[in-house]
């Protein structure tokens, strides 16, 4: 009988990717066929069907091994199946799996809430509301902001991704396909351009622009059509993730904070993708010295269990029991996983490691930039790194097909990558990836680029 419980650490796996048969192999093809037949249309990236995974390595059902520079879309930041997290989940599962955390009490949930209030920025009392995903954390933040301010409107950024549920998609402005046919959305959301200096929407140049992309809010929007005292909150990402891993200039987020404070508008920092060490700080807002009123978190906090939360100033708490609630938020298994994940991040200094490895990744990416004209921009914060591909460095025409081809060529050679923005590729390996694996990943990337441009 096939052993389906080979979890997994090292024993049967090579330490480097290995493509034994051209993917997708026969077993993967069968799964893909079944998926196509029974699953609703999704944004599949590469035709890989996973069998098991450990650290930065993933083995597919046909025995090919890949390096994972995607972390399951920024989730498995400690690598796949980190042993102490797996052990914590197992221990919890054997005790009690679920006990409606919004109706009753258990220590793991309150302990985790306490921990989250301690590790997030801000020297004030905070409170936590648990959810099951990033989008749901954004929903909770929207409701919390409206509830506490009794204001109705929101501001968000063009290029932002905050999820796809009805509230969250009203803030998201990343791709047309995500919004097409779903109107009407939540009314009262105003979108403004993000600080995307590589393609400044105002055709200005930093620092001469004097951060017009932030100041325009106060100087134009708030004086002509958007009453600031009707705005509950500004939703922002400190690094625009899905939108292209866009890192704003240092002063952008602080300038926004200054303007929002002036008008009593809450700052909601969406750390769903950037949080928990990815950027070389525990939370990306720490790079900018800005303390949000509400923070949304998910993805990397739980190493793969469906969990999220908002951490808000205590005074923003929903005052009425039942004003906001759910069944699974703060589920015991999820709490066990998050507590163990935070423990690994802290005890193994993974925030510092992300900063160190991020420098290495940027060095490799800039070397590629020097060699290959197709790379128009290299950007990143910590180990949240990306390239934007262009047909021509002067015109900056998006190289979308070439980007897709590079992702495919990389996959065929044993490296998993995810796109971002219109023609970007993100590089988000685990925060503890061994350096030789990191280098191998970028070697494969270079081979993939060569295969596409030659
Ligand atoms: C910044 C940000 N917010 C929210 C979300 C939505 O998270 P989820 O897919 O878990 O709903 C994402 C997902 O990519 C994200 O990157």
End-to-end gap: 47 Å
In CATH terms, what is the architecture of the largest domain?
A: 3-Layer(aba) Sandwich
Rg on CA atoms, Å: 22 Å
Low-confidence stretches: 1-12
Strand segment tally: 15
> Which whole number gives the mean pLDDT?
95
Notable features of this structure?
454 residues; alpha/beta; Aspartate Aminotransferase, domain 1; Aspartate Aminotransferase, domain 2; 2 domains; seven-stranded mixed sheet; four-stranded mixed sheet; 15 strands; disordered N terminus; binds pyridoxal-5'-phosphate
Write structural notes for this entry.
The chain is globular and about 60 Å long. α4 (107-119) packs parallel to α9. It has helices at residues 26-38, 71-74, 83-95, 107-119, 134-149, 166-171, 212-224, 252-262, 332-347, 350-371, 400-413, 435-453; strands at 50-54, 57-60, 65-68, 126-131, 153-157, 189-192, 231-236, 266-270, 294-297, 308-313, 375-381, 384-389, 415-416, 418-420, 424-427. The protein has two domains: 26-68 and 350-453, Aspartate Aminotransferase, domain 1, CATH 3.90.1150.10; 85-347, Aspartate Aminotransferase, domain 2. Helices cover 35% and strands 16% of the residues. The chain contains twelve helices and 15 strands. The strands form three sheets. A seven-stranded mixed sheet has the order 4-10-9-8-7-5-6, with helices on both faces. The chain has a four-stranded mixed sheet with strand order 1-2-3-13. With 454 residues, the protein is α/β, with parallel strands linked by helices. The structure holds pyridoxal-5'-phosphate. Pyridoxal-5'-phosphate is lined by residues 73, 133-135, 138, 161-163, 237, 241-242, 270, 272-273, 298.
């Amino acid at each position: 009988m096939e052993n389906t419980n080979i979890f997994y650490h090292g024993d049967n796996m090579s330490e480097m990717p290995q493509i034994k048969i051209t993917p997708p192999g026969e077993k993967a093809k069968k799964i893909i066929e079944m998926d196509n037949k029974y699953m609703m249309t999704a944004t599949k990236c590469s035709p890989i069907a996973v069998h098991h995974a450990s650290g930065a390595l993933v083995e597919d059902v046909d025995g090919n091994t890949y390096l994972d520079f995607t972390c399951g879309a920024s989730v498995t930041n400690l690598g796949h199946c980190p042993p102490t997290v797996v052990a914590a989940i197992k221990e919890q599962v054997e005790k009690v799996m679920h006990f409606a955390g919004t109706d009753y009490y258990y220590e793991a949930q309150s302990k985790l809430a306490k921990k989250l209030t301690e590790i997030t920025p801000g020297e004030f009392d905070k409170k936590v509301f648990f959810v099951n995903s990033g989008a749901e954390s954004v929903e909770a933040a929207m409701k919390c902001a409206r509830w506490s301010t009794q204001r109705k409107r929101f501001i968000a950024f063009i290029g932002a991704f905050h999820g796809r549920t009805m509230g969250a998609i009203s803030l998201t402005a990343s791709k047309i396909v995500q919004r097409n046919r779903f109107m009407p959305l939540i009314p009262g959301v105003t979108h403004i351009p993000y600080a995307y200096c590589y393609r400044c929407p105002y055709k200005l140049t930093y620092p001469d622009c004097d951060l017009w992309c932030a100041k325009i809010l106060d100087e134009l929007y708030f004086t002509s059509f958007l009453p600031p005292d009707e705005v509950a909150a500004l939703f922002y990402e400190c690094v625009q993730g899905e939108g292209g891993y866009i890192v704003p200039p240092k002063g952008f987020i602080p300038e926004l904070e200054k303007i929002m404070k002036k008008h009593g508008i809450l700052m909601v920092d969406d750390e769903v993708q950037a949080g928990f060490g990815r950027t070389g700080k525990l939370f990306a807002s720490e790079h900018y010295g800005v303390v949000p009123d509400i923070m949304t978190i998910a993805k990397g906090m739980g190493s793969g269990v469906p969990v999220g939360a908002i951490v808000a100033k205590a005074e923003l708490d929903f005052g009425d029991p039942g004003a906001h609630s759910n069944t699974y938020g703060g589920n015991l298994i999820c709490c066990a996983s998050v507590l163990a994940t935070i423990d690994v991040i802290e005890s193994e200094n993974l925030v510092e490691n992300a900063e160190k490895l991020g420098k290495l990744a940027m060095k490799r990416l800039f070397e590629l930039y020097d060699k290959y004209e197709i790379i128009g921009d290299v950007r990143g914060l910590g180990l949240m790194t990306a390239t934007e591909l262009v047909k021509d460095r002067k015109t900056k025409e998006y190289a979308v097909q070439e980007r897709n081809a590079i992702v495919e060529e990389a996959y065929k050679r044993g490296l998993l990558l995810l796109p971002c923005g219109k023609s970007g590729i993100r590089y988000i390996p685990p925060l503890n990836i061994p350096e030789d694996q990191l280098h191998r990943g970028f070697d494969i990337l270079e081979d993939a680029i060569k295969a596409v441009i030659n």
